Amino acid sequence: MNPKRLRILKEGNSKIGPVVYWMQRDQRAHDNWALLYAQQKALEQKTTLFVLFNFVPSFLEAAIRQYGFMIKGLQEVESELKKHNISFVLTTGDAGEEIPKFVERVNASLLVTDFNPLKIVRRWKKSVADKIDIPFHEVDSHNIVPCLHVSDKQEFAAYTIRPKIQRLLPDFLDEFPALQKMKTKIEKNKTDWTSVYQSLNINNDVKEVDWLLPGENAAHKVLQEFISKKFVNYGTDRNFPTHDAQSNLSPYFHFGHIAPQRVALAIQPLTDHAESHKAFLEEMIVRRELSDNFCYFNKSYDSFEGFHKWAQDSLNLHRKDKREYLYSLKQFELAETHDDLWNAAQMEMVNKGKMHGYMRMYWAKKILEWTKSPEDAMRIAIYLNDKYELDGRDPSGYTGIAWSIGGVHDRAWFERPVYGKIRYMNYNGCAKKFDVKKYISNNINPLS
Ligand SMILES: Cc1cc2nc3c(=O)[nH]c(=O)nc-3n(C[C@H](O)[C@H](O)[C@H](O)COP(=O)(O)OP(=O)(O)OC[C@H]3O[C@@H](n4cnc5c(N)ncnc54)[C@H](O)[C@@H]3O)c2cc1C
């Protein structure tokens, strides 16, 4: 592993004992640098390796839709690890309490974890580091070029991070070694997944979906299908909401079921389709990694204070502008606006758990237009995105919403009411671009 992936969260005191990998964001057995690093340390010390997942019975707005996807993915992780003689352990409760307890119980010598820029996870890590006295190492297993290596500040836009990523990519886009089978025998006990489901304290109204299956195997199948059927037209068709041209990989990236690096290794040789090649790698590497950069270096990634000064100043000047329509959270949630295109986008997200990428921009911008303040718009957009999207609660979500409502990573546009200098989108623009009637009829609100 390239050592630049590693960050020491705590020096700690060395001792003899098992290595523990606290799996958080990268929920997969293969192509996982944090797990491979933990395994290498365990092999060097001739000791046992534990993979620990701490289960939190409620998380942001996640519902059974997202929890079901995650739990099924973890069941696959457990059985895959078992084939490699690696124990999978699940604890439940506050990570800041549970991880240190486990470390003490098994008398661990080293704690390894993966990288996540979100505030809540960083708080957990800080609390764990304060309570343990062994070394605590973090490995960026999610970004191809590690987030903290590519830049040490908030990047202004894609054009500022792109050359940095491109320069460093050859150092990091390498083949993964295989996960090895450990020699140590492991305990036979299996996680009681029924109790895990019973422990959930969440919203059961947002149902699981069956069009996209969870887990590492399913993620690889979706990638293969994208390559064989959709990739050729990705460059031209990805922004047409009535075309099935996107990869659908974002839920897998979000739960870590597949490594973006594995996807990049599969796409890299497909240079015959230059437009698709360029567009896909731009979205999947530059845009996705820019989101981690934004959330890591801007702690206000989910609020008005996170916007650039020009955007805050401009939106402040338009606070008192008359809004033609004003809707409550409930009206938005029930897709009860006057705009059938917006309602269709909301219904696509509610029913499918994944709104088309192009419509996400329109959807969030209209929330800015139809609420009384940008703060309300942020709160409503994040609440709905986190509750219904399979890929919600992700840096790309907070960044996409901040881009749409607060011009983050974008530039100032012509001044107009409510939006100020934030880029505007409208119904007629969509109608000129794609078949809005077809999109609307594909995503009918059954209550309307
Ligand atoms: C308002 C708004 C909300 C969003 N919410 C989320 C979210 O909650 N979770 C999420 O993962 N993405 C979010 N996005 C980004 C983007 O829309 C989705 O990543 C994309 O639509 C996912 O579908 P796909 O995997 O089929 O994409 P593809 O078009 O196949 O792209 C491949 C991959 O590239 C990355 N990517 C594509 N577009 C973007 C983008 N604009 N920003 C960052 N990465 C991108 C994703 O990792 C994606 O899986 C949001 C964008 C906006 C404007």
Folded structure, characterized:
The structure is a single chain. With 448 residues, the chain is α/β, with parallel strands linked by helices. The chain has 3 domains: 139 residues, HUPs (Rossmann fold), CATH 3.40.50; 116 residues, Serine Threonine Protein Phosphatase 5, Tetratricopeptide repeat (Alpha Horseshoe); 139 residues, DNA Cyclobutane Dipyrimidine Photolyase, subunit A, domain 3 (Orthogonal Bundle), CATH 1.10.579. The protein contains 19 helices and 6 strands. It has a 6-stranded mixed sheet with strand order 1-6-5-2-3-4, sandwiched between helices. Strand 2, helix 1 and strand 3 form a beta-alpha-beta unit. Helix 6 packs across helix 11, helix 8 crosses helix 11 and helix 16 runs antiparallel to helix 17. It is globular, with a radius of gyration of 22 Å. The model has no long low-confidence stretch (mean pLDDT 96). The site of flavin-adenine dinucleotide has 28 residues, from helix 9, helix 11, helix 15 and helix 17.
